[in-house]
Amino acid sequence: MIAGLAWLNEPCLPFDRTAAEAARRRQDQLTKPRGSLGRLEELAIRLAGLQGKPMPAADPVQILLFAADHGVAAESVSVFPQSVTNQMVHNIARGGAAVSVLAAALGARLEIIDLGMVTDPGPIEGVRSERLGPGSGNIAREPAMTSEQQAGAMNAGRAAVERAIDGGARLLIGGEMGIANTTPAAALACALLDLPPADLVGPGTGLDAAGIAHKTEVVATALALHATPGSTPMELLGRLGGFEIAALTGAYLTAAQRGLPVLVDGFIVGAAALAAVRIQPDVRDWLLFAHSSAEPGHRAILEALNADPLLQLGMCLGEASGAAMAVPLLRLACALHQNMATFAEAGVSEG
User: Fold this and answer.
1) Cα separation of 67 and 179, whole Å?
2) I want to staple 240 with a disulfide (CB 3.0 to 4.6 A). Which of 108, 188, 204, 230 is the partner?
3) 169 and 57 in contact (C-beta within 8 Å)?
4) Which 3 state secondary structure label does DSSP give 30?
5) What is this protein's function per UniProt (predicted)?
6) How far apart are CA 82 and CA 68, in angstroms?
7) Where are the alpha helices (DSSP H) in the chain?
8) Radius of gyration over alpha carbons of the chain, in Å?
9) Residue 287 burial (CB < 10 Å; 0-12/13-18/19+)?
């Protein structure tokens, strides 16, 4: 066990079947044919079991966005330079990025955490600095993180979730910003799923066919170097992940231990969710999957986690944007569950 991560052994909270059954009974008494609201009914029941309340709520929503750079960007696996990570963090903090607009429109709280960009930006209003270094290592040549950096990243994710819970959050969304981070996400997912890079590597920020082929070779090199037989999920996360991916993994583990439902975004966040489940399988109960990313590797992650995402919009932006799009569905599911009349209340005959 890495020093400072003894909390990984804490159990996840159980799903409250009594609350879920009470919610199901209520759904069956609402003025509609049973099952006619489809997945909205199941969402309300699922949230009831996770929150331990027959009348669940989807608010307040907390978005945690972790930012970091990646040494593997030196292998030319992205069409954008690393400076864009820093620029986008400023843009998010100023309210100009997709996640900023979505958070404002949803009335969701947004916290931005800098875990280590190549250039130290200094203080940025609205950004919490928890820098672990100038980006992670180049996974094609060295491990992504030292054990101390991995512990720091996972503890940063844990602390962020605890702040969210202290602030009253009832639903958690994790997001990321980091140029080239689809490469470590693909490498980590390949290692955890024992799948070849060609099955998971995609265009990321817009690579052409030649760029994807090169990126696939880079991932293969990283796997040959780090995905040795018998490696544990924690070891693979430290060797192949990145600061923000490790922080998200720590955040999801903590959310499950503390009883906070998670709405999972796309490919990069999905790789972190997969790592969290491989570290502690009961985390899976606490994950709701928002959408199916256009990034090809996301499908394999969803299948491995037996996940049926709520939306398919062709999105692959990251930043927690796809998860934010699904928040209204959860809110509406809860509103229908709470506010529709029962047959008895409405004086309507049951079928």
Assistant:
1) 9
2) 188
3) no
4) strand
5) Catalyzes the synthesis of alpha-ribazole-5'-phosphate from nicotinate mononucleotide (NAMN) and 5,6-dimethylbenzimidazole (DMB).
6) 10
7) 17-29, 39-51, 83-94, 98-106, 147-166, 182-193, 197-200, 209-226, 233-240, 243-258, 267-279, 297-304, 321-339, 343-346
8) 20
9) buried
* Nearest to 174, CA basis, from 327, 66, 298, 307: 66
Question: Residue 342 has what DSSP assignment?
Answer: B
Does the predicted TM-score (pTM) go above 0.90?
yes
CB atoms within 10 A of CB 122: 7
For residues 205 and 65, what is the distance between their CA atoms, to the nearest angstrom? 18
d(CA 203, CA 78): 8
pLDDT in tens, the chain (351 residues): 788 999 999 999 999 999 999 999 999 999 999 999 999 999 999 999 999 999 999 999 999 999 999 999 999 999 899 999 999 999 999 999 999 999 999 999 999 999 999 988 889 999 999 999 999 999 999 999 999 999 999 999 999 999 999 999 999 999 999 999 999 999 999 999 999 999 999 898 889 999 999 999 999 999 999 999 999 999 999 999 999 999 999 999 999 999 999 999 999 999 999 999 999 999 999 999 999 999 999 999 999 999 999 999 999 999 999 999 999 999 999 999 999 999 999 888 886
The residues that bridge with 289 in the sheet, in sequence order, are: 264
Domain covering 61-331 in this structure, CATH number: 3.40.50.10210
CA atoms of 40 and 169, how far apart (whole Å): 21
Domain boundaries, the chain: 14-55+337-346, 61-331
Active site residue 319: yes
Residues 6+ apart with CB under 8 A from 99: 63, 65, 92, 110, 175, 319, 320, 321, 324
Question: What residues contact residue 344 under an 8 Å CB cut-off, 6+ apart?
Answer: 29
Q: Which residue is catalytic, options 162, 217, 319, 350?
A: 319
CATH 2.60.40.10, applies to 14-55+337-346: no
Distance CA 271, CA 251 (A): 13
Q: What are residue 14's phi and psi, to 5 degrees?
A: -80, 155
